[in-house]
Amino acid sequence: MNLTRLMVLGTLASHGPQHGHQIRRTAEVTNVGEWGGVSVGALYRELKVMAGEGLVSELRTEQVGRRPARTVYAVTDQGRVELSMLRERAIRDLRPGPDPIGVALTFSGLGDDPEELASWMAARRDMLAVGLREISADRERLLAKGYITPLVATVMRRSELMIEGELRWHEEFSQVVSQASAGPPAALTTGAENGAVQAGRHRPEPPDKAAPASARPSSAELPASAEQPASAEQPAGAKAAGAEQPAGAKAARAKPAGSSQPPASHQTSNSRPG
To answer: Do 117 and 93 form a contact (C-beta atoms < 8 A)?
Structure first.
């Protein structure tokens, strides 16, 4: 997104025709190049490019004393359409910017010298606190003198809230580092290292590697359902087949061990009269 173009078109639409020096002065006073991503050095070039595209028009040329002549620009109807599109994109954009400190802490942890890191973090926290006081004082002063509108004051207040959140994060970070330093060394590893360690610990066994016999469960360790006799697990068809066997076969199975007495059917045939 071209934030420099957005700033120029917005300024011309809000404050009327201006020359490049006036727009540059506004950018320098508001310090938008630092907090807004506007390229202050590219303002004049952007004006000429937009004039070629029909987004702004050259109204006239002004010269005061011996100063260089300055071209006064005004936003066109086409430029207002472009401004509306850029504003919508900027307001709807929720993507965070680059996070250098997040990258440093995520992938390098405390580093080789935790005390050095602590000094860097303390200096960063102090700079944030100074910046917060300066922004707050500027907002109150500019608003009291009427140099900024209440709307602009709320935008500056948003910056204050963001810095306050960053300062609270510093406090939480210090507590986490103190607790980790008192714990095992593994607590100080980075997230990327922990992921690699966990992946190594939970490496699955090859599928073709059979478990040793000692690892197989014994019959005493099997659940009750596994200890049922095989006959209980026979299908219904097998049970029906067994029920259709002849009576002689059933009697033979019921014969006590060691008994020499023939079945009842044989006894009856031997007692018939000759």
So the answer is: no
Q: Which amino acid is at 201?
A: R
Q: Which residue has the tokens 């960063």?
A: 124
SS (H, E, C) 219-259: HHHCCHHHHCCHHHHCCHHHHHHHHCCCHHHHHHHHCCCCC
In angstroms, rounded to a whole number, what is the distance separating the alpha carbons of residues 240 and 9? 93
Long-range contacts from 85-92, C-beta under 8 angstroms, 24+ separation: 86/1, 86/2, 86/5, 86/6, 86/9, 87/6, 87/10, 89/1, 90/1, 90/3, 90/6
The Cα–Cα gap between 76 and 4 comes to 17
Structure tokens at 96: 């965070």
Helix (H, G, I), strand (E, B) or coil at 97: coil
Give the tokens for residue 23: 């727009």
Q: Per residue in 87-109, pLDDT tens?
A: 999 999 998 888 999 999 999 98
Q: How far apart are CA 51 and CA 42, in angstroms?
A: 14
pLDDT in tens, 12-55: 999 999 999 999 999 998 889 988 889 999 999 999 999 999 99
Q: At how many degrees (to 10) do helices 3-15 and 43-53 cross? A: 80
Residue 7's closest CA among 40, 34, 41? 40
Tokens coding 255:
């014969």
**pTM of the predicted model as reported, rounded to 2 decimal places:** 0.61
**Which CA distances in Å does 70 have to 28, 44, 50, 159?**
18, 11, 17, 34
Taking alpha carbons only, the member of 14, 31, 54 closest to residue 139 is 31
